[in-house]
Amino acid sequence: MFSKSAFNIFLISLLFIGSQKLTADIVSLDANYVAGQTDVTSKLNDDRTKLTNGVNNIRGYYAGSVQTAGQIKADTIGEENCGDDMNPRIRTSEGAFCSDIVTSGLLPSTTVGTLIGSIPAGTAYPDGYRVAKTDSTAHTFTASRWTWVYLLTSGSFSYTEQVIGSSTPAAPANSAVLARVSTDTAQIANVLDLRTTNCASGPFSAIADVNGEANLGMLLSKGSPIKNSTSPGFLQGLQISYDTATTFKVKSGGAYIGGRYRIASSDITVTTAADNPTSAGSGLDTGAIGGSTRYTVYAVGDMDNAENLSISYSTSGSAPDGVTYSRKIGSIKTDAANNFVSTDVINLHSVNNDEMITTWFQVNGQTNPASITNAKNISAIADNGAGDFTVTIDRDYNDVGKMAAACTNYPNSAQEYSHFTAFTQGSIRVVTNGHGGVNADCARAMCMVVGSIERE
Amino acid sequence: MKKYFLLISFLFISGVCEASQMYAVERDDGGISIVTYEDGSKDSLADVLKDMGLMYSFDPHKIYAISKSDLPADRADRRYWKLNKVGIGPRVLIDTDKKQADIDRKKNEKILKKQKRDVVLGKLNITESELKDLNENTD
Fold first, then answer.
1. What is the mean pLDDT of residues A264-282?
2. CA neighbours within 13 Å on the CB side: how many for A437?
3. Cβ contacts (< 8 Å) between A393 and chain B: which residues?
4. Strands (E) located in A100-237
5. How far apart are CA A111 and CA A104, in angstroms?
6. pLDDT for the residue numbered B6
7. Sequential DSSP letters for A381-396
8. Is residue B51's pLDDT more than 70?
9. Which residue in B has a C-alpha nearest to residue A377's C-alpha?
10. Contact B1, B55 (CB under 8 A)
11. Does the distance separating the beta carbons of B53 and A385 come in below 8 Å?
């Protein structure tokens, strides 16, 4: 017979095994004990060993991708038994498809008359670890500072203080950023929400069509619309145009500006007032507007976490003074009376209409009637007589004073020369004179026109 | 407005739409312009005539839709083209009267020039061949 204590151990072991709700390998013990059992000690030790090994082998051995030889078998743990920290259903329902996302709460608010702030309860996934704060957390912020607030994987908060106006500091390890708290001498004056609340919102470096291929951040930051630009990256719109003697306009558009992505959601009217880059205010870089001066125009993205860019223009050809994120987009000049002028506005990443050959044509004056061999922006031709034709321009020019045209003819064996006898926004009359000033039909009269027209 | 109405009426009466492409237009200076209208243009025919300065002379009797067969075979007498308003035969004819008048005028000019030259020669007491040596243009 075995001792009472041995029996108790055995009984407890049975209870232990029976209490497991795991579906596990069956732990087989020796055959039942019978009255007058011999070699009891050996049998008990045998059973003890089997029980111990069974319990110790619950985890099994992780062989890289498959958990093998363990008591816990595949597809045996239901989702309902998973803790929230590892439950895929919880992660999915909270939208935690990316790291550092904040799925609820955790945004401090402003205060009145006190520097003691509160970070409310909420849930976040710093580095992909789920951290649920069930209570609010108080913190006394330092006066007249910017304080960046982070949630760590440990569940603690981290605070990084900087002088107001400082650039964004490096985030601590194992953290998700929550906010930038701005204090004055007595209270929390402003809270900038820096939480990532939506995985679809970026970063661009995480968005790629196929794993391993160039991501969206790379595509938007490389290359330039013009060949020798010193300012790379995406740029659309943002054309500069003259407006009045004291204003110019920048068209709506978007640009990559030194690591930041900004847009002008509508056309920007830029005055001669001073700029204010950190508040997205457009204007003159330094000093007062000068006469007979060419100003370089920049798209600026200094306002933090903002959609919109601002415009600064400067006598500096490299960057506006005191601006961190800027991108050169063109230039405009003033006359001697300090007024903006419409001539020679330069857009670095666009071609102005008046910089393009917007009309050209080749006419054979020797066909009957004179005919267009080929043309761009011509609606009709009139054969007026020998060596005399008129072409009408399909999309008329805006101002006959802002057009220029030139014609020549080929072959020139009869010393022919072509010239204009009428020139309007909508038509050009060309006469070809031959030897002795007599009109002569030529095989190819070729003309080009430069000027500004409205384009589709 | 009246001009546009007349233009539309002309197009309707002549059974022509802008797709016909070619028109003969009599100008106020008496000459005619042959207008070829390009398919797909943003300008309407009226816009084209206006831009060419031909709209002011718009008159149903001064503009006709034509085809190439309405034109004289070559351009040698281009300066003498005129509209055939009778309606029989090609729309564009050679104004033979004008052409003859030009020929006669040039001939008379030549005669007059020769007469003047002879008067001068008479004063200079030089021969014809001596005058020619001076490379005088007697044409």
1. 94
2. 0
3. 51
4. 102-105, 116-119, 122-124, 131-133, 137-140, 146-152, 157-162, 175-183, 188-193, 235-237
5. 21
6. 52
7. EEEEETTEEEEEESS-
8. yes
9. B41
10. no
11. no
Best residue of A378, A379, A391 to probe chain B, by most B CBs closer than 10 Å:
A379
Is the pTM higher than 0.80? no
Q: How many CB atoms lie within 10 A of CB A53?
A: 11
Contact A269, A243 (CB under 8 A): yes
Map residue B46 onto helix, strand or coil: helix
Q: Would you state the pLDDT for residue A230?
A: 66
Token digits for B71?
A: 């034109």
Q: Which residues contact A244 (CB under 8 A, 6 or more apart)?
A: A340
**Max alpha carbon distance in chain B (Å)?**
72
Higher pLDDT among residues B56 and A140, named by residue: A140
Nearest by CB to residue B35, choosing from A380, A385, A426, is: A380
CB contact under 8 Å between B51 and A368, yes or no, is no
Rounded Cα–Cα distance for residues A225 and A263 (Å) = 17
Q: Which residues contact B35 (CB under 8 A, 6 or more apart)?
A: A380, A381, A382, A383, B22, B23, B24, B25, B48, B49, B52, B54
Residue pair A282/A266 in contact (Cβ under 8 Å)? The answer is no
**Interface contacts (A, B; CB < 8 Å):** 84
Give CA–CA dist A109/A102, Å, rounded. Answer: 16
A340 and A242 in contact (C-beta within 8 Å)? yes
Q: Which of B18, B32, B33, B71 to mutate to test the interface with A (most CBs of A within 10 A)?
A: B33
Pick B75's closest partner by Cβ from A368, A382, A393. A368
Distance from the Cα of B19 to chain A's closest Cα (Å) equals 12
Predicted confidence (pLDDT) per residue in A378-430, tens digit: 999 999 999 999 999 998 998 888 889 999 888 766 657 888 999 999 999 99
From the list A366, A369, A394, the residue facing B42 with the nearest CB is A394
Q: What is the pLDDT of residues A187-202, one digit of tens each?
A: 999 999 899 887 765 6
Measured between CA atoms, the residue of chain B closest to residue A380 is B37
The reply to whether B41 touches chain A by the CB within 8 Å rule is: yes
Cα gap A388→A431, rounded to integer Å: 4
Partner residue opposite B78 with nearest CB, options A385, A392, A426: A385
Residue contact A385–B73, C-beta within 8 A = no
**Least confident segment among A83-87, A117-121, A213-217, B114-118:** A83-87
Å between B106 CA and nearest CA of chain A: 15
Pick from B79, B77, B62, B72: nearest CA to B3: B62
Q: How far is residue A441's CA from residue A455's CA, in Å, rounded to a whole number? A: 33
Q: Name the residue among A32, A28, A30 with its Cα closest to residue A42.
A: A30
Q: For B77-124, write each residue's pLDDT tens digit.
A: 999 999 888 878 898 999 999 999 999 999 999 999 999 988 887 887
